[in-house]
Write a structure and sequence with these properties.
Strand order of the largest sheet: 6-5-4-7-8-10-9
Number of strands: 10
Mean pLDDT: 93
Largest sheet: 7 strands, mixed
Strand content: 15-25%
Low-confidence stretches: none
Helix content: 40-55%
Radius of gyration: 24 Å
Number of helices: 14
CATH architecture of the largest domain: 3-Layer(aba) Sandwich
Length: about 325
């Protein structure tokens, strides 16, 4: 390159382009790792790694697409997450090795969410807000959401332990049960506990039933595919719970929802809500934006806002505690 050409480039956009390389690289890295995780490539590249042909065979990629696959793997090398030696591709970065480990499936789920749907949410938000085009709830991968939410599982289990006694008859209603892991936690804590778990997704309900049977809890936990707002309410439950699902209800429906749940709870019983709230990390802000842009859902609640909604819905002595210092993940408890 001639000096005059370099100077012309420096007077143009070269310096600005160089300053953008860092963020661009990070975006490319998240996209690559999310794609590698979603396609289950990372385990094949652990240890000694694999050749191009071996990766293609594992992924079911035809011969005519091998050149494109090689380009994709080369991107991973350029980003520092893979290495290539002697025709074999293997994991290089600590993050890539972590994401390949099944023990860190929740972390991989978060990366897949950020590189997939949530990237789309951030990129398309101005357009969608301008034209009023909502995302569909069906765009959400339920299995991926369940996997990523496991990162908060210890915090929610702690909140469950606070409200469920270790002995004595106790009836639990869980709304939006998902994988039923928190109903299981409550049942393991108290051998006399019985529960009704509700979810509106038939596939989720079927999986929850299978898991509950595998855990040997089908005699104590019933799972129903039902909209809680349409479900007949009787004041027979000692505890009603909603874990990480209040934002699946629009803001204007939350107070009626909480009032409806009040009708399920016996006098002196409690409600337990766990949720991220506004004012936390950027991950929470993205989740709140997704809720605002998705049909039938809503933004994350504010702490004081949800406390006030509980009070207006007929719950007493409502209180909140942050479960995650440095972020805004709260548990809310109130008495019937």
């Amino acid at each position: 390159m001639k000096l005059a050409t370099l100077l012309a480039m420096l007077r143009g956009d070269l310096l600005a382009a160089l300053s953008a390389l860092g963020p661009v690289r990070q975006a490319q890295r998240v996209a690559f790792l999310a794609g590698a995780g979603g396609a289950n490539v990372l385990p094949h590249l652990a240890g000694a790694g694999a050749t191009l042909d071996e990766v293609a065979k594992a992924l079911g990629i035809p011969d005519e697409a091998h050149d494109a696959l090689a380009s994709w793997l080369r991107i991973g090398v350029q980003l520092g997450d893979l290495r290539e030696r002697g025709g074999r591709y293997a994991l290089r970065s600590r993050l890539a090795r972590t994401l390949a480990d099944p023990r860190h499936a929740a972390v991989l789920g978060i990366v897949e969410q950020q590189g997939g749907l949530y990237h789309r949410v951030i990129r398309e938000a101005p357009y969608r807000l301008r034209v009023g085009a909502k995302l569909a709830l069906g765009d959400v991968d339920g299995e991926l959401v369940a996997r990523a939410s496991k990162i908060l599982e210890p915090l929610v289990c702690e909140a469950v332990d606070e409200r469920v006694p270790v002995r004595g008859a106790f009836r639990l209603l869980e709304v939006g049960c998902g994988s039923a892991v928190y109903v299981r936690r409550a049942a393991q804590r108290n051998p006399a506990l019985t529960a009704l778990a509700l979810d509106v997704d038939p596939a989720v309900v079927d999986q929850a039933r299978e898991d509950i049977a595998a855990w040997g809890l089908e005699g104590r936990i019933a799972v129903a595919c039902a909209d809680v707002m349409a479900h007949a309410s009787e004041p027979v439950f000692d505890l009603v719970t909603l874990h990480n699902c209040i934002y699946y209800f629009p803001l204007e429906q939350r107070e009626p929802l909480l009032a409806k749940l009040r009708g399920f709870c016996r006098p002196g019983g409690h409600i337990l809500v766990t949720t991220a709230c506004r004012g936390g990390s950027v991950v929470s802000d993205v989740l709140s934006l997704w809720g605002s842009l998705t049909e039938g859902c809503g933004r994350l609640p504010d702490r004081d806002e949800l406390l006030a909604q509980l009070g207006r819905a007929g719950w007493r002595d409502a209180g909140a505690r942050n479960l995650l210092p440095g972020d805004s993940v709260h548990r809310f408890v109130a008495r019937a």
